[in-house]
Amino acid sequence: MLASIDTPVLCARGLYKSYRNGARWMDILKGIDLTARCGELTLLMGPSGSGKSTLMAILAGLSRPDRGSVSLLGFPISGLGESDLTDIRLRHCGFIFQSPNLFAALSALDQVRLVLQMTGTQAVDLDARAWQALKDVGLDDRAHLKPAALSGGEKQRVAIARALVKRPTVLFADEPTSALDRYNGDLVTIILRRYAHRHRAMVLCVTHDARLIPHADRIITIDDGRIQADERPHGDDPFSQVSDHAAL
Ligand SMILES: Nc1ncnc2c1ncn2[C@@H]1O[C@H](COP(=O)(O)OP(=O)(O)OP(=O)(O)O)[C@@H](O)[C@H]1O
Ligand SMILES: [Mg+2]
Predict the structure, then answer these.
(1) Which structural domain range is residue 170 located in?
(2) Atom 1 in ligand 1: residue holding the nearest Cα
(3) 54: Cβ below 6 Å to ligand 1?
(4) Which of 70, 88, 113, 219 has its CB 3.0 to 4.6 Å from that of 130, i.e. a possible disulfide?
């Protein structure tokens, strides 16, 4: 975990990306510069098709820019090979998507345990850590249920427990609340913000969901492949805001 809130976790410079659409090339990212630090929930907002998911995939090393560079946790990820990228993602990054993508045959507890096994956690610690991760998202009483027995919001919270159990320093979320009702959407938002603050993590969240705005430390608006606005609605110190320690 990084020590200082001012440490830049992510530094992207001059990102360009185009996709071919039939005979034409479409310029999706047109020169993005972005620095992000730990301890904040940052929203990436903007119209549909503006390049948000494209940008997040490049920042996470899931896709490569045509031009420009990305440094994540000090790793020059735009220049690394696939096996190094996979290793960095496994050790340091968590991912949450709109759809939870759980394994149908596994209980909530086993979905979370599996991640710990993949990261080499000692067997003796597996259960306690997986239980705690489910407790942190308010699901310890659902631990033995398989996805078919969970609601949509509960499934998404299992996916979040699975992403957070290894305590990633960076968390990438793409539309994590858009399929959820108000109650579950609010819950997920509070969990993301609380994780960023408590664990000094960088949480970068692509969203259309205006419910997240009051919880955000920083809001970056992208339009037509460029950053149009970059605001900190609560000022420069995320720890000066209203409490994020609300019980689930
Ligand atoms: N692999 C691809 N091949 C071709 N075009 C692509 C590819 N990925 C994205 N695009 C195009 O790039 C543009 C931006 O897509 P992107 O998914 O980044 O938008 P977005 O801002 O996340 O939109 P939304 O809010 O609808 O999710 C879109 O026009 C999309 O069709
Ligand atoms: Mg998208």
Answers:
(1) 8-240
(2) 19
(3) yes
(4) 113
Nearest-10 Cα torsion for 118, 2, 12, 232: 120
Three-state DSSP at 13 gives strand
63 lines ligand 1 (CB under 6 A): no
Structural domain contains residue 81: yes
225 lines ligand 1 (CB under 6 A): no
Q: Which atom of ligand 1 is nearest to the CA of 57?
A: 18
Q: What is the pTM of this model?
A: 0.91
CATH of the domain at 132: 3.40.50.300
- Asked whether residue 1 is assigned to any structural domain, the reply reads no
Q: Is the CB of 193 under 6 A from ligand 1?
A: no
Higher per-residue confidence, 244 vs 197:
197
Tokens, residue 6: 């001012």
Domain count for the chain: 1
Query: In the chain, helix, strand, coil percent, each to 5?
Result: 35, 25, 35
Atom 24 in ligand 1: which residue has the minimum CA distance? 48
- Rounded distance from Cα 22 to ligand 1 centre (Å): 15
Mean pLDDT of the chain: 90
**Rounded distance, CA 54 to CA 60, Å?**
10
Q: Does ligand 1 come within 6 angstroms of the Cβ of 51?
A: yes
- The reply to whether ligand 1 has any atom less than 6 angstroms from the CB of 207 is no
Residue-wise pLDDT for 72-128, tens only, equals 999 999 889 999 999 999 999 999 998 999 999 999 999 999 999 988 888 888 889
Q: Which residue carries 């994020």 as its tokens?
A: 244
151 within domain boundaries: yes
